[in-house]
Amino acid sequence: MVMKVEKISELTIDRLSVYLRCLDFLTNNGVKQISSQELAAQLNLNSAQIRKDLAQFGEFGVRGVGYSVGKLRDCLKHILGIDRLHKIGIIGAGNLGMAIAEYEGFFGTNYSVVALFDSDIEKINKTTKRGIPILDVKDLAEEIKKSSIDIIVLGVPASVAQSVLDQVVAIGIKAVLNFAPMQFYVPEGVKLKTVDLTVSFDSLSHSLVANEHEIG
Amino acid sequence: MVMKVEKISELTIDRLSVYLRCLDFLTNNGVKQISSQELAAQLNLNSAQIRKDLAQFGEFGVRGVGYSVGKLRDCLKHILGIDRLHKIGIIGAGNLGMAIAEYEGFFGTNYSVVALFDSDIEKINKTTKRGIPILDVKDLAEEIKKSSIDIIVLGVPASVAQSVLDQVVAIGIKAVLNFAPMQFYVPEGVKLKTVDLTVSFDSLSHSLVANEHEIG
DNA sequence: AATTGTGAATTCCTTCACAGCC
DNA sequence: GGCTGTGAAGGAATTCACAATT
Fold it and tell me: Residue A215: what pLDDT?
């Protein structure tokens, strides 16, 4: 019953995911051993960063040798909690919801989209091309329990996003991926990750004019 | 001909976009004046942060009073380069490309999706529901010039993403939004922003198991 | 000899706290 | 009095550089 007191930053966690993907790639190419140096070169970052990130969870390497690709991969999967299967439910069977449901490659063996939810009578009880059912959002609570959904994707318009989020939280969901470009209230213990495409585009726009402005 | 020497961080730029959205909202609600304090409260952040972010670009406020919502909004639009219209081209007319092309609300008056590109003969020369044309990716260079496309969205599988990116860069595009979960080589002067959903899901997964691990 | 794991140094980002101004 | 703009302080993240280890 030991507590890890050090708080691990989001930046570290996100990099672990990137390391893991790289290790998957190396595994497929038959690479068995790798140094932080080589891994860093592939990912365009500093080798000390990789070692520091890993050090927060234990000692996975061998001095003078490096890391076993397979072993490190298993460790990262465990740390990230993808040594088990997560069940994803998507609310909003519009283009965005469909895109995520169907997008190949996102969900190897770690994630499975089990259902979409919508209130549009035209969509309910149909399925996606891959056969994922589209259900009535009224049955959300029931279905979350029945199918053990543990991650919800919010693909609904900003205008209703907070109220849908509140529902989902009330049901007991602890992890939500949101695409609505807005501010939310989320209670303690619930993780909300927002993918804000507006911000991404604005950032690109800025980069396009940044030079002009500087030589203004 | 004065150069701004201070480099402005991505974090600052991303926040400016968030401030702008909030100001848009305030404008719609008839609010004319706001203090950094009030703005910070709405966005769950520190008022000094807002003032510091803005200070990097000039003095937009009035001491003792606050900021004019309309004026600050215009200034932010100019800084972010969205006081002009950007033309977006989407490569890959799959679910993801379609979702972005059709997604309401992303593209107010600042962005316009002018075309999608694909190599699938079944899709070429059709249009999206909203009437955006799907063109042959072979005509990419020509169309980018003809339509003054300045932002490209990569909605293609990871396996071909680097080669498509190379093409796009060769044509002279300087801003790319990418959804393929992978590492890229990008030359100096080209801004590549990656939205990596794998990382987002892994981060959610981690949050679900983090507690268990800590009380291991 | 090579590479990890890590304290120290550095760089970057955020927050404090207050002078300056309306 | 109230709020901005900002130097100084504090905190976080990254990188350096080297002792420890195989």
Answer: 63
pLDDT at residue A36, as a whole number = 98
Kindly report the pTM of this predicted structure.
0.95
Report the top-level CATH class of B86-199. Answer: alpha beta
CB contact, 8 Å: B4 with chain A? yes
Residue A22 with chain B: CB contacts under 8 Å: 183
Fold of A10-80: Arc Repressor Mutant, subunit A (1.10.10)
Of the given ranges (A65-69, A96-100, A119-123, B75-79), which has the lowest mean pLDDT?
A: A96-100
Q: Name all contacts of B1-10 with Cβ < 8 Å and 24+ positions apart.
A: B1/A215, B2/A216, B3/A214, B3/A215, B4/A213, B4/A214, B6/B56, B8/A210, B8/B56, B10/A203
**A60: pLDDT confidence band, cut at 50, 70 and 90?**
very high
Give A86's strand partners. A111
Q: What DSSP letter does each residue of B83-125 carry, written as one string?
A: SSPEEEEEE--SHHHHHHHH-TTT-SSSEEEEEEEE--TTTTT
Q: Where in chain A is the domain with CATH 3.40.50.720?
A: 86-199
Taking 50 as the pLDDT cut, the residues of chain B under it are 1-4
* Cβ–Cβ under 8 Å, residues A76 and A16: yes
Taking the Cβ of residue A93 and every Cβ of chain B, the question of whether any pair is shorter than 8 Å is answered with: no
